[in-house]
Amino acid sequence: MRRNLLAPIAVLLVLAVVAGGVGFWLLTRPAAVSITVTPADAVIAFNGTTAAGTLEASDLEPGTYPIRVERKGFEPVETSVELERGKHPRLAYDLEPLPFEVTLASHPEGATCTVTCADGQTFEGAAPFSAEVPAGPVTVSLSRDGYNTFTRELFLDEPFALDLWLDPDGQIVHALGMFSTSGAPKAVAITPDKSEAWATILNGPPSIEIFDPLTGKKVGEMDLGEHGAVEVIFSADGTKAYASQMETAKVFEIDVATRTVLREFDTESAWTKVVALSPDGGTLYAANWSGNDVSEIDLATGELRRRIPVSKTPRGLWPTADGLTLYVAGFDSGWLDKVDLASGEVTAVFKDGGALRHIVADESAGRLYISDMADDCIYVHDMKTGTTTKLADVDEKPNTIDLSPDGTMLFVSCRGENNPTTYYIPGPEWGTIVVLDAKSGAPLDAVVCGNQPTALDLSDDGTMLVMSDFLDDRLRVYEIPPYDVFAAGGGGRWDEHFDDIRK
């Protein structure tokens, strides 16, 4: 009988112990909280900790905790939460968007502007257009008959202004802007970081003008004596620039950061134009238009090593990556010269050209591209076999060319037909920028520009192109999409541009 009584008592004792443990656990269990916010990148500040979008906190003592949620463009939230022991509340906050002015302008004017918010709210009007739009993700669209529709998605958290150049229907290259320079911008070079575009002013001084290519704001200028400048290039690291001057037959070495001349190099020839650096950056080559030679300057000493006689009126230069060869384009001769840099021996490897002007190369593919202003075409020279063939016919008077970093696209500035009186004044048609498939020569796009497009440079990453309308004293800036966009574009505006160039 006694054993029967002890069993229930034992059970009760166990239950009491368990109950006591549970009670103790409940009385000592910490508090916790979960906080989520919208927008998802808003910053939450809680108990000395910050996090974006979501914050989890545990092992908290009961009590009142302040909470702050904030994001640029939205009303901040200041609140608090009372946390109880053993409880885990889950809090969510939606920040209230502030209104911001959206201003849209189009060239030409009159484009239909639409701003669509994430909740479907829409603002619409004709450019120039302005509206107060709540912060958050929005889609901006501008459309006009005869032009590509422009669409951009952005997160609005401050006043936004867009001054957009609309592109003709089918054009793949997208215009970013256009701005004025001093007289006759002959060449342009984009700094490796894309922050500046340096334009040589043939009719200077100023000899060089420097612009922010995205805003068109002039950020500096340089004088190289009483004359202008012809060409400008940057060192591989972007710390130095080299600018040529025809009248003095000099090349100026410039510190890019301070925009000061470090050294002057005398080519000891005549009418110096194109300049190029050896791949190791130790040698400067300068083509002397009237001297019919190329000056080779040692940059370590600043001394002229030699002048290499080449065919008549040299212009384009290409020093090969192995440091063994220099290719030279002869303008009056129409010859492509190959210089053995060890011996100085010159061999004309192509003689059927009309007026060879500029050279670029894809050495990984062994292809050298040359523009011919007389025959209105681009040649490609096989650097392995030594043969030269026509890559493509282009518009009138092709001059400066550049190759995309991946070697897929060739960009060609074409001045257009000369005025029958003199090429110093505008001719009967607009100039163009032609985009070619660098392998096949097939046209990928054509952009109608102003009078005598001359300067042209593609950024090192291949996404930006700056060119000059030489007789209009201005630069144009374009956004360049990747090759697959061009390849899918059906030739862009190539067929239509023939009508567009007629004045």
Structural write-up:
There is one protein chain. With 503 residues, the chain is mainly beta. Among the domains are: 2-96, Sandwich (Immunoglobulin-like); 98-165, Immunoglobulins (Immunoglobulin-like). The chain is built from three helices and 44 strands. The strands form twelve sheets. A four-stranded antiparallel beta sheet has the order 3-2-5-7, with no helix packed on it. Strands 12-11-14-15 form a four-stranded antiparallel beta sheet, with no helix packed on it. Strand 43 and strand 44 (474-479) form a beta hairpin. The longest helix has 27 residues, at 2-28. The protein is elongated, with a radius of gyration of 33 Å.
Main features:
4-stranded antiparallel sheet; 503 residues; 51% strand; Immunoglobulin-like; elongated; mainly beta
